[in-house]
């Protein structure tokens, strides 16, 4: 999952970014409103976190411009004031959720995961496609009753595929949503991950969960159960 | 404020009065002058007529038919050359002129029919403008067979004397009218000073309040200003109360932060165990967070409601419901409304949003899928302003009977795990109290969960 973090206060931005990276997110940060809008329009994020009190361009305006620019990914706003007037204004401008500072990072993670899931059309934190179950809170995967051991990048790829189960996902989609901006991208790596995932999820070749659409990308082909 | 300064009340009033006065005096003067002129000329004519008649009365005809001009003229002025009053009789063989008319070319008539009269003037002559009254007269013969004599009698008068009169009148009249006008203006100015004095008093008293010499506008003001000054007093009081509250809140905040700060300093100075330090430090941070949130909420509510405009509950409730339905989308909860469109809140918009937001957020958090908002105006017969009933119900687990009284105890608890104990509800409690209202907690009859009811009483009556 690729996340945009727009927060002007450096210590908070850095702590949050580090924690989000540890949780498996690809994080791009912006320190002011202008930069936030620029990045938010350039990069296909899965979720954005926008502080309301930003230099150069207020957070509300950032949210408004991203929405006007046609970006549909969920946006969570952070506010220090916590008045209902602010919350109502924020959601009116197109944000999807708010969090009042100071907050627990666990709360932020839970809200972000819920927003990403919801925007992909999942209502519960447990993503189920037939025998394959991916628990977004525990970041664990089981096939049938067997738990599957995945590296963090393998997990990221699988999570993205299952979130968009049934949809065509191109290699560049995967690299863009899994790596941060400055990462050196090599599409061969994705092929390697897919190969390993196929082996781990479907050791005997009976399930065929990931379909290759020649020249275009991949599709998680087991239909969603819930 | 406009860039150009407005005319002062006194200037407006004086300007209007001067214009009216000028018009009034001008018209009056003109009318008086015309009337005097008419009168002066009719007097002139009457005088000339009486001279003419008395002249006629003394004039006679001789037996031979000769006109006998009186030896003694009826007006001594007729004797004096250049006196301005002239007489002349012209007949068939007769041309008589009064001594005053000697050597002057006067436009006298000499051939009027008997009984015919003419009045002319002013006619320009070598002695100035002259009025001439002429009459044709027939003197009948005294003896039988004698001859009748037909003559024209003229009386002329120079217009100079009348013009002098008119000029004198005009000068006197304008002097008097002008004086009267100035007097009226001066009186008007005095009157204005007198009637505007209460306004200057208010200004002076406001100055006292500003400088802190006085608490309130305490003078006795005329009835027209009473509403204004009592309104100002309300504002002053409201401002003072606000200031006091901010000061208290600030003081409370600073003092209540000192304890956790002291604890943390102690920890950093004395605790060497990193794990224990972290845990105790986090505890203190959580405590400080609670304190700040609580005091912020107290400071945010205004409680300022003397002149608040009515805010319809419906629109604001819809905004909150849309927000919350978005935030709690994962739950699929929906808000139902039973809101009277006439239900209004008299206060700050922020306060209304806090009330609705916190109550409905609490309901959304604890409900299974349904939240019901009820709003009604409370109208008493004699109240100036309707009160408001707000009720928020949910279909969640509700609050156990035993805990209800605890929920109603005001103050910060910040325990988000128990319904009714969150910081949001303590804000609602503070707000309702500052508006002199009442907060009731119970079980929802309709939905079976918790029911929070806020009653803001009507005002006045």
Task: Give the secondary structure arrangement, pairings included.
The complex is a heterodimer of chains A (226) and B (461).
Chain A: E1 2-6, H1 10-22, E2 26-30, H2 33-42, E3 47-51, H3 59-68, E4 75-79, H4 84-92, E5 97-100, H5 105-119, E6 126-129, E7 132-135, E8 140-143, E9 146-148, H6 152-163, E10 168-169, H7 171-178, H8 187-201, E11 210-213, E12 217-220
Helix pairs in contact in A: 2-3, 6-8
Chain B: H1 9-58, E1 60-61, E2 67-68, E3 85-91, E4 95-97, E5 117-125, E6 128-139, E7 149-158, H2 160-211, H3 223-270, H4 274-300, E8 310-312, H5 313-327, E9 334-339, E10 344-346, H6 349-366, E11 370-378, E12 387-394, H7 401-408, H8 423-434, E13 438-443, E14 450-456
Parallel strand pairs in B: 9-11
Antiparallel strand pairs in B: 1-2, 3-4, 3-7, 5-6, 6-7, 8-10, 11-12, 12-14, 13-14
CATH architecture designation of the largest domain in chain B:
2-Layer Sandwich
Estimated structural class of chain A: alpha/beta
Indicate the percent of residues in helices of chain A.
40-55%
Percentage of residues in strands of chain B: 15-25%
Averaged pLDDT of chain B, please?
A: 84
Q: Provide the number of structural domains of chain B.
A: 4
What does this structure look like?
Chain A is α/β, with parallel strands linked by helices and 226 residues long. Chain A folds into two domains: 2-119, Response regulator (Rossmann fold); 126-220, Winged helix-like DNA-binding domain superfamily/Winged helix DNA-binding domain (Arc Repressor Mutant, subunit A). Chain A contains eight helices and twelve strands. Chain A has helices at residues 10-22, 33-42, 59-68, 84-92, 105-119, 152-163, 171-178, 187-201; strands at 2-6, 26-30, 47-51, 75-79, 97-100, 126-129, 132-135, 140-143, 146-148, 168-169, 210-213, 217-220. In chain A, helix 4 (84-92) links the parallel strand 4 (75-79) and strand 5. The two termini of chain A are 21 Å apart. Chain B is of the alpha+beta class and 461 residues long. In chain B, 50% of the residues lie in helices and 19% in strands. A five-stranded antiparallel beta sheet of chain B has the order 4-3-7-6-5. Chain B is rod-shaped. The model of chain B has no long low-confidence stretch (mean pLDDT 84). The A-B interface holds A 81-85, 87-88, 91-92, 96-98, 102, 114, 118, 123 and B 285, 289, 293, 296, 300, 319-320, 322-323, 326-327, 329-330, 332, 349-350, 353-354, 356-358.
């Amino acid at each position: 999952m690729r996340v945009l973090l727009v927060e002007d206060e450096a210590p908070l931005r850095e702590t949050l970014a580090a924690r989000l990276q540890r949780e498996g997110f690809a994080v791009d940060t912006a320190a002011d409103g202008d930069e936030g809008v620029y990045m938010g329009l350039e990069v296909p994020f899965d979720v954005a976190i926008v502080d309301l009190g930003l230099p150069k361009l207020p957070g509300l305006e950032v949210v408004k411009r991203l929405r006007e620019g046609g970006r549909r990914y969920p946006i969570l706003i952070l506010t220090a004031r916590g008045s209902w007037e602010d919350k109502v204004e924020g959601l009116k401008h197109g944000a999807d959720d708010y969090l009042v500072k100071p907050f627990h990072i666990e709360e932020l993670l839970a809200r972000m995961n819920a927003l990403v899931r919801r925007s992909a059309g999942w209502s519960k934190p447990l993503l189920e496609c037939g025998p394959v179950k991916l628990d977004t809170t525990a970041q664990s995967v089981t096939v049938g009753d067997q738990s599957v051991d995945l590296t963090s990048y393998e997990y990221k790829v699988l999570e993205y595929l299952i979130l968009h189960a049934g949809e065509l996902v191109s290699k560049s989609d995967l690299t863009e949503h899994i790596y941060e901006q400055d990462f050196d991208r090599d599409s061969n790596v994705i092929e390697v991950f897919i190969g390993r995932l196929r082996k781990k999820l479907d050791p005997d070749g009976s399930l065929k969960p990931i379909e290759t659409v020649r020249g275009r990308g991949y599709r998680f082909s087991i239909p969603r159960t819930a | 404020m406009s860039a150009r300064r407005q005319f002062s009340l006194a200037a407006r009033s004086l300007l209007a009065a001067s214009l009216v006065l000028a018009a009034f005096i001008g018209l009056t003067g003109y009318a008086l002058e015309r009337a005097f002129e008419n009168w002066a000329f009719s007097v002139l004519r009457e005088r000339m007529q009486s001279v003419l008649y008395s002249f006629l009365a003394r004039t006679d005809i001789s037996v031979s038919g000769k006109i006998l001009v009186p030896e003694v003229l009826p007006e001594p002025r007729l004797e004096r050359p250049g006196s301005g009053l002239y007489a002349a009789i012209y007949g068939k063989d007769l041309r008589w002129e009064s001594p005053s008319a000697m050597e002057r070319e006067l436009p006298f008539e000499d051939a009027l029919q008997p009984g015919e009269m003419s009045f002319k003037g002013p006619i320009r002559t070598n002695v100035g403008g002259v009025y001439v009254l002429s009459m044709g007269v027939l003197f009948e013969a005294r003896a039988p067979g004698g001859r009748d004599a037909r003559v024209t009698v003229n009386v002329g008068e120079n217009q100079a004397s009348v013009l002098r009169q008119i000029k004198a009148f005009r000068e006197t009249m304008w002097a008097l009218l002008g004086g009267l006008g100035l007097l009226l203006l001066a009186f008007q100015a005095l009157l204005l000073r007198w009637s505007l004095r209460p306004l200057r008093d208010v200004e002076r008293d406001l100055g006292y309040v500003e400088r802190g010499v006085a608490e309130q506008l305490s003078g006795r003001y005329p009835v027209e200003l009473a509403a204004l000054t009592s309104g100002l007093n309300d504002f002053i009081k409201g401002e003072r109360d606000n200031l006091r509250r901010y000061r208290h809140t600030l003081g409370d905040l600073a003092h209540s932060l000192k304890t956790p700060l002291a604890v943390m300093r102690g920890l950093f100075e004395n605790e060497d165990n990193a794990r224990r330090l972290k845990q105790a430090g986090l505890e203190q941070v959580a405590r400080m967070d609670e304190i700040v949130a609580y005091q912020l909420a107290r400071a945010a509510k205004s409680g300022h409601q003397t002149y608040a405009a009515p805010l319809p509950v419906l629109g604001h409730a819809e905004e909150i419901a849309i927000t919350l339905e978005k935030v709690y989308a994962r739950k699929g909860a929906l808000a139902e409304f039973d809101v009277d469109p006439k239900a209004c809140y008299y206060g700050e918009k922020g306060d209304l949003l806090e009330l609705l937001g916190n109550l409905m957020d609490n309901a959304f958090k604890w409900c299974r899928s349904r939240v019901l908002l009820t709003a009604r105006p409370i109208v008493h017969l004699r109240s100036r302003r309707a009160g408001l009933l707000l009720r928020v119900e949910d279909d969640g687990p509700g609050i156990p009977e035993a805990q209800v009284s605890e929920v109603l105890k005001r103050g910060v608890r910040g325990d988000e795990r128990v319904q009714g104990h969150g910081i949001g509800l303590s804000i609602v409690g503070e707000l309702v109290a500052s508006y002199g209202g009442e907060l009731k907690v119970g079980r929802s009859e309709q939905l079976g969960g918790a029911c929070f009811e806020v009653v803001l009483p009507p005002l006045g009556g």
